[in-house]
User: Fold these one by one.
Assistant:
Number 1:
Amino acid sequence: MKKGISPLIAVVLLIAATVTVAAILANWARSYVGGEVTEFRSKVEKFECLYGAISLISDEYPKIVNDRIVAMIEVAGVPLGNFTFEVIYNDPTTGIEEVKVLKDIKNLALSPGIKGIGIIISENLTENNINPENIIKVRIGSNCSEVKTEWLEIKKIE
């Protein structure tokens, strides 16, 4: 009489092998779908932001007031928020032009139209190691990475 493994052990081994393969496939599928979703969200954001724009309301902006950059802006096309100030300045210690990004301390969110006008204010310049006298240009950005103003000259310091 030949001896082999019992049918019960064979079933347990088959189930274990099936569960292992299923776990590997599920993990692969999760990472694949996660990457596709991230890529899709990025494409949707770019599409949604396609018609967005930021413009200044007045020629007197952006300007420095109380060690902060202030700008009165208007948005068009799409709702925008998470405004930032990209600052180019001369670093006196190195003599090199540096770029630093400062956040809007008001966390303003604007929609196109009449409600699309607002004043944004940067973080404190001195606390971010930027001497207002050394600022060369500023660019205002938003939550839509492609929606920015052109590089702007800072108006007189008040």
Number 2:
Amino acid sequence: MGKPKRDADSVIRTSRPVAKAKRDKRAAGALVPGRAKAGLFGISEVLGGEKVLHKRIENRLDLIEVASKGLTKLAFLNLAKFLQFSTKQLADVLPITDRTIQRYGEKAHFSPVVSDHILQIAEVSAKGTEVFKDKGKFILWMSHPCVSFANKTPKSLLKSKFGVDMILDELGRIEHGVFS
């Protein structure tokens, strides 16, 4: 005979407090084994680190907090430098004009909407560098048309959340050896 079926309630009731603590951390996005720690650290580093963000990024809730306070122009410039984009190229994929960005001082803060989009692009950058294990290879990949994106470049999809999600999904497939 097979094992008796367990419903979700019985699994929760029989869980040890340590397992519950691990679930709570994962629910908050904190340090999921392997990926999250490197990913969150990578996002922070792409934008200039704790010094520029004025906060240590330990979980995804920290990213929400940073976005709501607004990223500085310095974080934007670090991302542009990392991606080897001009400020105009990066502004073209953000909901803000290049001219508006030029008027900002280095320590001026972007709106939460713009900051959130910058963080999404930084996540793509961190994940891509992690997957390709080389920033140069990732930058090259971003500029080449991809069949799974209807022969569009990954870089051209950065304008929307849906495009960012598509890029992250494709990077996940590449990471696991599933090519489309």
Number 3:
Amino acid sequence: MSTTLSRLSRVLSRGLPIGACVLALSACAAPPAQPAASTPGLGAGVVVSPQASSADLGLPLYPGAQAYREHKDDQPAVNFGLWGGQLGFKLVIAKYESADSPERVARFYREALDAYGPVLDCGDPKAPRTKQKGQLSCEQDRPASGGRLYKAGRPGNVRIVGIEPHGSGTRFHLIRLEGP
């Protein structure tokens, strides 16, 4: 998995303070997915949870995969959302492991990501590396040795899957990012 995604996952899953960063990011985020308040006025809210379902991630869970912790004080998932008025931000991360090979897990998620449009393979030297308005890019993200890193969606609504070999099986992170 890329160093950037690994660091992000580690920081968020340990529950370190990120409120200030999220508040800054949410200022230019897309409209929230939360339902509008039934009474006039400005609605706002925050969701923080150490659980992430398949629906939260917007991706199916790999059959037989188990959530894992890298460290005993670690959480296998984080679900964080912040919205107010027409602005919103959502970040969902979950970590899993499987006894299946990285190739098999990669095939499963490559097909699942097709639902969000063209899939970027950030391990491909031809993958786009520079930001262009309205398009995803890999920028500096690259998979770990022997792994895969896929992105699909559009800026403001992205799914990311990082896959890496672990012993005779596979560890992988599923990420959903909505916002700026």
